[in-house]
Amino acid sequence: MGSIDLNSDLGENVADCIVSDDASMLRIVTSANISCGFHAGSPEGIRETLTRAARGGVTIGAHPSYRDYANFGRIPVDIDSATLQAHVEYQLGALIGLASAAGTTVSYVKPHGALYNAIAHDERQAKDVVAAVRAIDPSLVLLGLAGGIALDVARQTGLAVAAEAFADRAYTPTGQLLARTQPDAVLHDPREVADRMVRLVTEGVIRAVDGSDIRVDAQSICVHGDSPGSVAMAAETKRSLQGAGVTIAPFV
């Protein structure tokens, strides 16, 4: 039946704001997108999550963002190319350094939130992010939205890529993620989420908000760590996929 990666966005906790159960999620997922500190998290918390991931044999990815701690990196930002590239380079360097201190390495890059959504359709910002990745380490893989422009831009430069689907997000008929400002943009029912992902892996389709099936070719599935019930959704998705004969393994 093949294999699929299961990932989650982690390292986003601070002492007075716990948004995810990193320890539990790291026992389920095969890859972890770990905050670089620009949208959430603290150096000490990020390092702890890196250490836990290394101990559990979980593949590590950098999760850079717009510099927007106040809005959790989920608000579009008007930013020039030189600044965006430097900000992404800075974040990658920081996470790679902390990973080294934790005895592990960074294998891929998955931008966060509004930046992730922007590079799925904005070629200029996609080029900025790709340039930053290549400047820091051209062996890193770019993980992005299936069908997004960023993956095409990265491929054209010789950067390795992987496409991603979202277990806990609703899709538009054009294959984009439904904006979080819209009703029912974020899914919470573990059974519904798991069934959608089994269809994705076994049939190559996801049901869009208008009831149509859209074709999605993905090598990794994300369950957001900060979504309510995220651990239950990830666990049920993993169980259901394995029950369907799918191997859960890192895409890198």
Structure description:
The protein is an alpha/beta fold and about 250 residues long. Helix content is about 40%, strand content about 15%. The protein contains eight helices and ten strands. The strands form two sheets. A seven-stranded parallel barrel has the order 1-2-3-4-5-6-9. Strands 7-8 form a two-stranded antiparallel ribbon. A hairpin with a 5-residue loop joins strand 7 and strand 8. Helix 3 packs parallel to helix 5, helix 5 packs across helix 6 and helix 7 packs across helix 8.
In short:
Helix content is 38%, strand content 17%. It is of the alpha/beta class and 252 residues long. A 7-stranded parallel barrel has the order 1-2-3-4-5-6-9. It has a two-stranded antiparallel sheet with strand order 7-8.
